[in-house]
Design brief:
alpha/beta; five-stranded mixed sheet; seven-stranded mixed sheet; 32% strand; 281 residues
């Protein structure tokens, strides 16, 4: 069963810790009870840290407990994770198109605002609601901050990977504490982007097989790439390996380095964070 880590976890290479924060990008992935973090040294082209912190829903409390997160970084990329998102052709919806968004997705007008993250590889954008209070806290907590949909960097990376490998089809899935994101590509195009609430490995396997069946994807012939709360040899991996012959974990962004001090299976659940650099200014 995929579970949420409730305790702090940190992996650091402190070799360049005395250098200014302005040399670094800070990447944060915000879930309901957890924030994952990654530090990228822009001049060294090197990831020097990964971390996971319990999250109460308040950035003010998070920074009070970990004040170094409020340093003046080159840029802070905040990826807001939610199952409630919509991938739409560009220039169809915007921050005022609440009624159109609500045709397919839930939206709380009193407490949420719509945000849009544009995609480069396909002429689309990801639209998702964010709590007004959370958006305000993020904006006031960091300088040089950009708020993104969590799914946008993954789509960008997946499209780049498929072009590099000259692959026509693939399935990507990200497992978080409460849901599984599934993207299915066929004939070089994104055909499905959806999220399903899950309570363990049986739900994860079911939704992947169900999505593949609906999209007419052959699990035995199509690669499945996993990220998030899954590791080689755990319950989810072992169950999926019964159906998917080509199973792998997502790789970090190419053309960047990860410190040798961060290597190993413990760092693998953070590799998808590196993709956020594709959305950096």
């Amino acid at each position: 069963m995929a579970t949420l880590a409730s305790e702090k976890e940190e992996f650091f290479d402190l070799t360049y810790s005395n250098e200014p924060a302005s040399y670094y990008y800070l990447i944060l992935e915000v879930e309901s009870q957890q924030v994952k973090a990654a530090w990228f040294h822009s001049t060294k082209n090197l990831f020097t840290g990964f971390a996971s912190y319990p999250f109460s829903g308040s950035f003010k409390s998070l920074i009070e407990n970990h004040p170094f997160l409020a340093s003046e970084f080159k840029e802070v990329l905040v990826c807001v994770s939610t199952a409630n998102y919509l991938v739409s052709p560009k220039n169809i919806l915007d921050g005022t198109a609440h009624d159109l968004f609500q045709l397919s997705n839930a939206f709380d007008r009193e407490n949420q605002v719509l945000r849009t993250t544009g995609l480069v590889n396909i002429k689309s954008e990801v639209i998702h609601p964010i709590a007004m209070e959370l958006e305000s806290e993020i904006a006031s907590s960091f300088k040089h901050v950009k708020i993104l949909s969590h799914i946008a960097p993954r789509i960008e990376h997946e499209m780049n990977t498929m072009r590099t490998l000259q692959a026509s089809s693939a399935v990507y899935a990200h497992v978080s504490a409460e849901f599984i994101d599934i993207r299915i590509y066929a004939n070089g195009k994104l055909h499905l982007a959806n999220a399903f609430y899950q309570t363990g490995e049986e739900d994860i396997a079911y939704y992947l097989l169900y999505s593949a069946e609906v999209m007419e994807i052959n699990a035995e012939k199509t690669s499945l790439v996993l990220s998030g709360n899954v590791k080689i040899g755990d319950a989810s991996w072992n169950l999926l390996s019964k159906y998917w012959k080509n199973l792998s974990l997502v790789k970090p962004l190419s053309r960047i380095e990860i410190s040798e001090k961060l290597s190993g299976n413990n760092a693998a659940p953070y590799f998808h964070l590196t993709h956020a650099l594709l959305c950096a200014s």
